[in-house]
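Re: the 1038-residue chain
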Amino acid sequence: MPDQIDPAMGEVKQLVTKENFTQWTKDCGVKCIQKQYDEMAIAAVKNGRSLQEEMQSRGHKDFHNFSKSCPKFRLGSWPIEFAELGSGYVLYFQFLAFLMLIFLVHAGLQVPCMVVYAGSSNLVDWSWHEWTKAYSTDSSACDCVGNSSGYAATCGTWDYDLCRDQSDCAFNETGKWICQSWCYAGKYCPKTDTGVSASMVNVHIHDGSSVLVKSYSSCTQDETLIAQCEADFRSANTAYSGPDVDTGKDRVWIGQHWLSPGNLGPDEATNVIIPTMYTVCVISMCVLILMAYSSQVLTDYKVDAGTTSPNDFAIMVKGLPSTATDEESIMEFFKEHAVKGKTDTEIVKVVIGWDIDEWRENIARLKDLKKRLDATDRTTPEAQEIQKEMVQITSALKSAGTKDAKLRSSGVVVVVFRYQSDMRACLKKWDSFWANWFNCASSDIGFLWKDNGICKGEPLPRFPIGGRPIAKLSAARAANPGDIHWAELAVPQGERIKRLAITNGVMFLLVAACFGAVYGLRIAAMAVKESAGSGGVWLSLLPAFVVAIVNGLLMAAARMLGDKEFHDTLTEQEFSQAAKMSVGMVVNTAGVLYFIYATPSEWYQDGGLVNGAFTMLLINAIVPPIVPYLDLGYKIRGNIRGKLEDRLPYFNEVLMRGPNPKDPEQMKELKAVKAEIEAFKRAYAPGTMNPTRRYASAIKTFVCCLLYQPVFPLISLVGLAGLGAQYWMDKYLLLGWYSRPRRPLNADIANFFVRFVKLVGPIGLSVSFFVFLTPSFADKNAVLGQFIISIVTSAIFSLVFPLSVWIRCWLSMPCREDFKVQEHEDDYYQAQYMWSKEMKYHKDQFIYKNLPEDKNPEFLKPGESTAVSATDMKATFGVSAGAVADDAADGPAKIALKGGRVVPSEPTIGGSVGGGPAPVVIGAVEPTIPASGTTTAEDDRPTVPLVSGGGGLPHTPEPGRTPGRVIWEFEWKGHFSAYDGDCQDYMEKKYQEYQSGGGRSRVNVRTKGIQISVDFSKMSSKRDGSDHIQKIRRKETE
């Protein structure tokens, strides 16, 4: 092997070693990058350097080297501290804490119920309970019926004549029941031992082949006769205990220590505190949901404070005809009609979602093959076959784009406004209740608040087709670049619904199959119990483990099926997967459990519902958080990692030839080695956290434990423990093991699951306590009354009361003034410099991004046309097809920072060896040389714009150089420096409003991507995230 020899050391060196890959495992982890990166970017501006120069001055040769120097987060850090991963990760841990808080509150509220349960021991009475009468009061249950021979068919002192004196008494044990009237009633006559003396308790007895009740409660008692017995040997206040008493010992029941309502017995409970406390639980949950949503909104705002995202300026419009391929005409339409009462709205750019129906299936196939290839050893015949098929599909795609190809619009476009205020005003007009349901604008009721939009207004304008206004349009806030599935925008609604029906049908069949499997296991377990005499908790273990395994399969199936559906955005796809996972696992866990133990008498048997709920929910709450710790995917890839050392000599032999061998065969070999290195790099990379699965797992634990609280109050602690284990395990894995997420996670999925809890939680608990408590109560109306209160409250809260209304009310409170002032008018032409190329709509869409820079510049300028003709688009159709194929097959490895910053995450393998070839980047592809005047996706543009010499942003006048104007300055190192020109006019405007008495003294200002709080009354400022107070001053130039 042609290793290199270092002349100075006389040692043999290798370009690629195993240590490079083991180090990559560590480098993939989550580190505190954003804070150090922003500080370095600010220092670069202050020192008049580019970011690369500032990075090198600190001893970092590139971004990867810099990221390696960044510290890891502390395990004990608050979730808000790793906000750079996106508000979604912060809110995920807050969401778990919110669910734990609900269980903690409910556990406390159920203490009075458990105290009542601890004082009763009537479990055996469920032996004679008729489940068909569990939810109604049967007034005839204790009617006198007599035995099979008609004996005791009416009330009478039937035992008195059998024991008149002590010497001639037919009973071994006596009591005053001898002097009490009774009759034989049916076996479903309740015991009714609450509030009566022991001798008056009804007793179940055997009468030949049938069971009857010796019912004292059915008869009127002769108090004179009873007083006579109380004065002689029959005075004992005990229940009848003759040899014919049926003790119900043919069944085994759970113990009294389970503290379930079963302790009260059937139709015997009278304490109304129990259903009342569950009504309180429902109401408290509604309050906690409001608090959680409010906290999420505030946290999301805090995380995103100081950053402006592309979708702050953009809307997504649907309903355009397929012939709408002229950007200019679409821009003109929205310029005139976007905002109510305005006909000159400034539109920056229109990005058309082009229809690529002929590519879609091939691209989907390529992605599937890529996943299979990543999980396969590249040296195997299977991998070679996969690669061969990928090459064929890629070649077909690259040859598909011709000038004769049909270029159609998907009917979906993204419209980018210059000002955020115009975007918000557009949504008020086009995304209101009236717009969505009646295609009309809204109008105000004059005497109410401004922009109340309560009344129906004029019809919305329609987009012209052939000169006539025909097409109805709908508009909503656009997703951010990178979140839009451009290739799926054109999929017809009918095809979407068909695919959705197929995937949901498959999911239904999977859940149904699990029902059958678990029910079969239950039958088998009962057979074992009857034959071997064993039961209890252990009989519930097997179905519990099976349900846990099937839940894992359901999550995998939901993810796979969600990938097969058509969605406009990645977020919508995640919602679909999350809904399938959550509903599937809840039905599979809670539904199956109730199905196999449906009757009340089965709830409290040993090995019944209570045992099953405890074991199944304990296993399904504790095991799923532990499974990610194993990182099974990483362990499975161990067979690939084990082959690395055998391949290293060959890698180094090929790499030593240099990065640009002239021999075509050697170049082909080099590419193959780079691809194989990429595969080994993936094999060494830890897994990544899957938020969708983790949210779904938490919801499954929460809903299942919530629904079984009324039948087993201690299950609240199981839910609390399970969610706590998930919180700490996921936090440990995210901060200590997992690879850093490729993109920041937004708050949408957290908001989705809070709404899911809002919809399911209060209503589910209301129905649950009615179902599980009613069979135990003598007066069914005691539970029914509380149920009606709970269900009405829940229905109004869950189905009628929108959380958005609560947020509006909450934000209008005086205590939320600090939240409302954090509003700033951003200009797209300034904000665009904060984002990397991939975070711009016209550089994200697959055809636009392959246009030359002179046709589709990254940075747009006011007053210059941005429209791209259909002819120019068609000219790059073939190039775009090839690029889409390459992206599907390769997928560049990058990570995103908060605020739209995207950077490469590839490490450098090997080092510079004297006289040798350049170091090799793991997974590198052939370098792309950008066109003149462009920047590549891999440039190190910071979150704040970097301008050499401390100048302002492009197209922004340099402050301090325009005579006869006001300049705002801040104190820095003992002298005053001018703020950048991007905020001067805004600060002066807010200052004048403050001076006139119509504005606030404290406002938030964003300059160069940094948010600062300015206090005009104190003439001071503070940068977001810093405690340092700076003086400011207003200076008028001559």
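Residues 1-12, 816-824, 907-964 have pLDDT under 50 and may be disordered.
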